Amino acid sequence: MGHCISSLFSSSPSKTGLHHSSHASTNNHSNGTEFSSSTTTTPATTNSSAGLRSQFSEAISESSGGIVTDSGQLLESPHLRVYTFLELSTATKNFRPDSMLGQGGFGKVYRGWIDAKSLAPSKAGSGMIVAVKRLNSESVQGYSEWRSEINFLGTLSHPNLVKLLGYCREDKELLLVYEFMPKGSLENHLFRRGEPFPWDLRIKIVIGAARGLAFLHGLPREVIYRDFKTSNILLDYNYEAKLSDFGLAKLGPAQEKSHVTTRIMGTYGYAAPEYMATGHLYVKSDVYAFGVVLLEIMTGLRAHNTKRPNGQESLVDWLRPDLLNKHGVKQIMDKGIKGQYSSKAAAEMARITLSCTELDPKNRPDMKEVVDVLENIQRINVVPDRSSTKPAVASSSRSSPLHYQYGYRAGAAGAERRRPSRPSPGRVGAQKEMVA
Ligand SMILES: Nc1ncnc2c1ncn2[C@@H]1O[C@H](COP(=O)(O)OP(=O)(O)OP(=O)(O)O)[C@@H](O)[C@H]1O
């Protein structure tokens, strides 16, 4: 979630201190605890964000005009629609609780409806579904996130970044309108469902997310995402991953500098050790967080969980040593997906996870290399005969990618998302969670 705004912006609010956020995200409770600086200042008023955006876009491209890199694009003139509060109220049925898709640290996200061509708001049930984030405008974090999202997502376009369609600022109301991601977040699938999430989909999703990060890191002026975690990886109908939530994103270091120095913000369990220790943020700090997500998809366990016994709260600290040998890898793999991956694929995953989570940022690979390795893992994952594989849990016939079905259910999304994750008895990880 975003709090920090680039130094490009003069009205950046001042912030001090560090605290555990008290927000109750519907997706993020006992696990990825958020930390951020506490803020007391009132959001400063700005003029239209368009001027700031073009200044911002220039900073990213370090030249004028839009550029294209790989399959992504830096937009010269973003086409964001400016909505009125009334329009978005209508589109979301007055922000009715049954329209709510979820809640993050600084606001609630609602299902809304707009016309697919004109992007004009339409009556609920007609046109195209969108996600409308209504930010808590009283906090500076909410305001800063809103600006940061517009600056980054209004300027960048890539198949693995969520699309921002428009925004609204009216009195104290700050809203953002995104393309709707029908399959929710990776976090939902990995941790909030009774049944194990198929290995093939896990790999497909991390490849997409890796491509998104590689795009950000490959820009003429690198962009550091700073909040890479499973709840920020959203999924389209085909489980294509899209990074959302650019509230914490930062422009990377200028010219010969290796890092930017910034206040420490992010999510426990994912933040790189050098960043936690010094506030020095490297492009490679994102690579560390990516490695943490790789360990999560291998084990089916959360990056950080205060309910685990002492010494096991941080997944990396706890299980990284097991990645060093074959036996350890076998032990920590999520038992719910047994038979869905080859031992070679698991060994390669262990290798790249180790490398991404190296203590020294210089020893971590860059995201392009990570993409290549993951694509190779996807290729080599030949398992003998799926149909003869014994399911590890009773319901795992549904865990085949072909059968796996899950998205938001109309009106029930909130309830699904609030369901606590139940440890599956068959999982080594789940057993480890309970070991005193
Ligand atoms: N474009 C979208 N389409 C569908 N659901 C979305 C979309 N954007 C956000 N959501 C859902 O709304 C919820 C809240 O999202 P939000 O980005 O505000 O917070 P978060 O990332 O879950 O939490 P945090 O405060 O840790 O960043 C998430 O569960 C997410 O799945």
Could you characterize the architecture of this molecule?
By secondary structure, the protein is α+β, with helices and mostly antiparallel strands. It is built from 13 helices and 18 strands. A hairpin with a 5-residue loop joins strand 13 and strand 14. Helix 1 (49-61) packs across helix 3 (140-153). The protein is globular. It binds adenosine-5'-triphosphate. Adenosine-5'-triphosphate is lined by residues 1, 25, 27-28, 34, 101-105, 107, 109, 131, 133, 162, 178-181, 184-185, 231-232, 234, 244-245.
Explain the layout of strands and helices.
Blueprint (H helix, E strand, L loop, with lengths): L15 E5 L13 E5 L10 H13 L5 E3 L2 E3 L6 E2 L2 H7 L8 E5 L2 E8 L13 E8 L4 H14 L2 E2 L6 E7 L2 E7 L6 H6 L7 H19 L5 E2 L8 E3 L5 E3 L6 E2 L8 E2 L4 E2 L5 H6 L1 E2 L1 H17 L15 H5 L6 H7 L10 H14 L10 H14 L32 H6 L9 H7 L2
Helix pairs in contact: 1-3, 5-7, 5-11, 7-10, 10-11
The protein binds adenosine-5'-triphosphate (ATP).
Task: Please provide a brief summary of the model.
The protein contains 13 helices and 18 strands. The protein has 436 residues and is of the alpha+beta class.
